[in-house]
Specification:
The structure is a single chain. By secondary structure, the protein is of the alpha/beta class. It is 47% helix and 13% strand. It contains 21 helices and 14 strands. The strands form four sheets. A five-stranded parallel sheet has the order 6-5-4-10-11, sandwiched between helices. The chain has a three-stranded antiparallel sheet with strand order 1-3-2.
Length: 515
């Protein structure tokens, strides 16, 4: 079921009915206060100017028309021109039934024109273990990829790495020094992992890459492809004919300023400076390679230290004759691990960094994935390690996962008891609120995808958990198994479990059946 179909179900059809009567699009929103109804619209305020009529007068007419609809139990107006609606139990049954019928795909398929998308992420040079900073790159990039795939796009994850250049030579020299029993050079690499690599024969880069891949697989990030800079660099000569270049001071330059860049850039350094291609040359080769592989969209996930080159990739696209809208660059901020007011340094290998493996050993994969995406990428993250380890309502990932485990327990107790989305009783506030919250998911996940904002999913999952816990807390009043309301409440629990499971999956977190 695609998102258009989903949002044009119970809620969408009601909006359409009201829009026909109002003569303008209607968006129903949940009021801040329960006494203002289940849903409300401000369409009368938007129409008042064009119709040159008081908004409350327009609202009164619309409320009268709305009250005649089968889905509406009661309609009222509120100054300065709102229409507040209370919906019938049958409407809730219809909405819940459609959610259940959609199954695990509820809220998906929102891409009106599905694309083939590449998300390039992490892409740290293989000079050491993956750090927590790079783990945020991966957690965020993988969650964006999951959102795009759920929307109906064909998504590929790629890791781009450099196996040559100054950093890699320092890395290799450091390992060779360890093999001779000598300390690393002053600007080299140190740590237990260097000693581990020194015990192996041959080039240390392949085993370091294998370790990186294993760490990321453990972190639930699987890469579909790995791009090697040295292999791409061999295509530079054939690319130069397609670029506007010139020589100056012995170097080869590209006239990028003619394509919106702030300055021209060096592609190949002068012989006096080594005569090697620059990172800018590698960027050009790589982007052309991406787009020539048939990707409609190339997304780069980069650290905030790349802010100065954020616009460079659009310049490259223009130089190569591609639409720059096909290229996205998303920057993310730093990660700080804390215990109370103290900054955490858990590393046994390199005292100045914290590795992904150490972080996962400390808090687990689920907590690590959640806490690295529960803020927008434009904000730095402070992760309280003690909180991330805690198995209580204070820890948001545990709080949300408990909903899935609790509903799974209800179904173990219920066995094969029948469900019925159609309520046979007057719904109370907690039941109504939980259904309404679940119905927000399609629009929420569409917005999260379009904005590349997986933190909206974690925020939403917490709100679902809040509504579930309000419902479940009063077990005497909201008994599920063995109550006269059992068929409906089992349907509500199944819908809740499905939406929570999908929300967790979209950020790479497991949905446990027991906790």
């Amino acid at each position: 079921m695609d998102v258009g179909e989903t949002t044009r179900t119970a809620l969408g059809r009601l909006e359409d009915e009201l829009a026909r009567r109002a003569g303008a699009p209607v968006l129903l929103e949940r009021p801040a206060k329960a006494e203002h109804g289940d849903y409300a619209t401000n369409v009368a305020l938007r129409l008042a100017g064009a119709q040159q009529r008081p908004p409350l007068e327009i609202a009164s007419e619309l409320a009268g028309a709305a009250a005649a609809l089968p889905a509406v139990e009661r309609a009222e107006t509120a100054p300065p021109g709102f229409v507040n609606l209370w919906l019938a139990p049958a409407w809730y049954g219809e909405a819940l039934g459609e959610l259940l019928a959609a199954g695990p795909g509820y809220g998906g398929g929102s891409a009106t024109a599905p694309e083939r998308v590449q998300v390039e992420m992490v892409s740290a040079n293989p000079t050491g273990p993956i750090t927590v900073a790079s783990a945020r790159n991966g957690a965020y990039g993988d969650s964006v990829a999951r959102l795009l795939a759920f929307a109906g796009n064909d998504v590929e994850r790629e890791y781009y790495y450099n196996d040559a250049g100054t950093q890699m030579e320092r890395f290799r020299v450091s390992v060779e020094a360890a093999r001779r029993g000598e300390p690393p050079p002053e600007d080299g690499y140190a740590g237990d992992y260097i000693q581990d690599l020194a015990a192996l024969e041959g080039d240390p880069v392949p085993p370091m890459l294998r370790r990186i891949e294993e760490s990321l697989e453990r972190f639930r990030i699987h890469f579909d492809s790995w791009a090697l800079q040295s292999e791409l660099a061999s295509h530079l000569p054939e690319l130069l004919d397609d670029l506007d270049t010139y020589e100056r001071d012995g170097a080869l330059w590209v006239r990028s300023s003619a394509y919106g860049d702030e300055k021209d850039r060096v592609l190949v350094r002068s012989p006096e400076r080594g005569g090697q291609p620059t990172y800018e040359a590698a960027d050009i080769i790589y982007l052309r390679n991406k787009l020539e592989r048939g990707f409609d969209r190339a997304i780069y996930i980069l650290g905030a230290d790349h802010h100065g080159v954020r616009g460079w990739y659009a310049v490259i696209a223009r130089m190569l004759g591609y639409d720059p809208e096909r290229v996205e660059v998303i920057l993310y901020q730093l990660v700080h691990l804390t215990r109370g007011s103290d900054v955490v340094k858990m590393s046994k290998r390199r005292g100045e960094v914290v590795t992904l493996d150490e972080f996962v050993d400390e808090v687990g994969v689920d907590a690590a994935r959640w806490h690295l995406v529960d803020r927008g990428p434009d904000r730095s993250i402070d992760v309280d390690v003690d909180l991330a380890q805690e198995r209580s309502r204070k820890n948001p990932v545990y709080y949300v996962q408990y909903v899935h485990a609790r509903t799974a327990g209800i179904f173990r107790e219920a066995g094969n008891a029948p469900m019925d989305a159609e309520p046979k009783h007057d719904l109370d506030t907690e039941e109504r609120n939980l259904v309404k919250r679940l119905l927000e998911f399609p629009r929420l996940v569409t917005e999260a995808t379009e904005r590349r904002a997986p933190h909206l999913v974690t925020d939403f999952a917490i709100r679902v958990a809040d509504d579930f816990h309000r419902f479940y807390h009063d077990r005497k009043r909201h008994q599920v198994v063995g109550s006269p309301q059992q068929p409906f409440r089992l349907a509500l629990m199944k819908a809740t479990r499905s939406v929570i499971a999908r929300s967790l999956d979209l950020v790479g977190v497991e949905a446990p059946d027991r906790m």
